[in-house]
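Morning, I've got a small favour to ask if you have a moment. I've been staring at a protein lately and its backbone has me curious. You're getting the sequence in one-letter code plus the fold written as tokens. I've dropped the whole record in just underneath, so have a look:
=====
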Amino acid sequence: MPIDNWSDDVLLVDLADDPQFTDDLNALLETVENREDLDVLLNFQNVTFLNSSNIAKLLKLRKLQIINHKRKLKLCSVNTHVWGVFLVTGLDKIFDVYDDVASGLASLKLGE
């Protein structure tokens, strides 16, 4: 599973297309449910499409991280096709998205 403990309180998750996307998000949800002290950066570099199930899992993760745990959730390296899905569904307005992993990690550490 491509979840990397980037630091004591930051998880870097390299996502891939389904079915791996669903498996990775399920494992991540379980991890953050058990650890309320983690910020999360989702790397979408290898994701080429999103379906409604993927979107539902992202929204569940967002609720758990931001609303329940008061922690950060950032996304990075979203390709043009997936970004189009974000724009059509309004996800671009509720997720913080960065160009690459470095800027996403920096935003977590700088408290943006």
